[in-house]
């Protein structure tokens, strides 16, 4: 068996990561379609899996305006997936939280994914899992930073001459 070079492994990892992100998007789309919600609604449900939060925090977590979030929360509340409740620490403040129905539906849709992940984590040492977690978290933080870059980008629609293959190698 021939050993792959570092570059071959890096490019294979990048292709695999991209394919994994696409597959995750397709899985989420199938789950959202099954329960009759859209991607933005699904993002809000995912954010709420971290726990109840004020609408302003939820809007920021989902990347939408507070006005748009009101529509999303109304839609999800109508489906019985979220509810607005008074904050026990400050009764003037309202929190949005998942309902037991949302937890039940999520368990049916994603429970097998969680179970598969937990089984597969057994293949790795604690140190290896920490390394993987660090890599994924660094990618998440970079993507959050890169969103600001994209927002500020003065996008050019003139295609420059590029090397054969069209896609520049990562640098």
TrEMBL record:
<dbReference type="InterPro" id="IPR000835">
    <property type="entry name" value="HTH_MarR-typ"/>
</dbReference>
<dbReference type="GO" id="GO:0003700">
    <property type="term" value="F:DNA-binding transcription factor activity"/>
</dbReference>
<feature type="domain" description="HTH marR-type">
    <location>
        <begin position="6"/>
        <end position="141"/>
    </location>
</feature>
<dbReference type="InterPro" id="IPR036388">
    <property type="entry name" value="WH-like_DNA-bd_sf"/>
</dbReference>
<keyword id="KW-0238">DNA-binding</keyword>
<dbReference type="GO" id="GO:0006950">
    <property type="term" value="P:response to stress"/>
</dbReference>
<dbReference type="InterPro" id="IPR036390">
    <property type="entry name" value="WH_DNA-bd_sf"/>
</dbReference>
<dbReference type="InterPro" id="IPR011991">
    <property type="entry name" value="ArsR-like_HTH"/>
</dbReference>
<dbReference type="InterPro" id="IPR039422">
    <property type="entry name" value="MarR/SlyA-like"/>
</dbReference>
<dbReference type="GO" id="GO:0003677">
    <property type="term" value="F:DNA binding"/>
</dbReference>
<protein>
    <submittedName>
        <fullName>DNA-binding transcriptional regulator, MarR family</fullName>
    </submittedName>
</protein>
<dbReference type="Pfam" id="PF12802">
    <property type="entry name" value="MarR_2"/>
</dbReference>
């Amino acid at each position: 068996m021939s050993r792959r070079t570092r570059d071959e492994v890096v490019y294979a990892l990048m292709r695999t990561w991209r394919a994994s992100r696409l597959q995750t998007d397709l899985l989420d789309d199938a789950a959202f379609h099954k329960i009759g919600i859209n991607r933005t609604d699904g993002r809000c449900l995912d954010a709420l899996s971290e726990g109840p939060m004020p609408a302003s925090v939820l809007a920021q977590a989902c990347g939408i305006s507070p006005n748009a979030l009101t529509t999303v929360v109304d839609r999800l509340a109508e489906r019985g997936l979220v509810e607005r409740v008074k904050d026990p620490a400050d009764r003037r403040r309202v929190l949005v939280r998942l309902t037991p129905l949302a937890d039940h539906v999520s368990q049916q849709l994603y429970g097998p994914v969680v179970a598969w992940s937990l089984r597969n984590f057994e293949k790795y040492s604690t140190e290896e899992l920490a390394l993987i977690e660090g890599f994924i978290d660094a990618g998440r933080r970079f993507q959050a930073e890169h969103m600001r870059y994209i927002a500020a980008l003065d996008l050019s629609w003139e295609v420059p001459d590029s090397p054969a293959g069209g896609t520049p190698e990562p640098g």
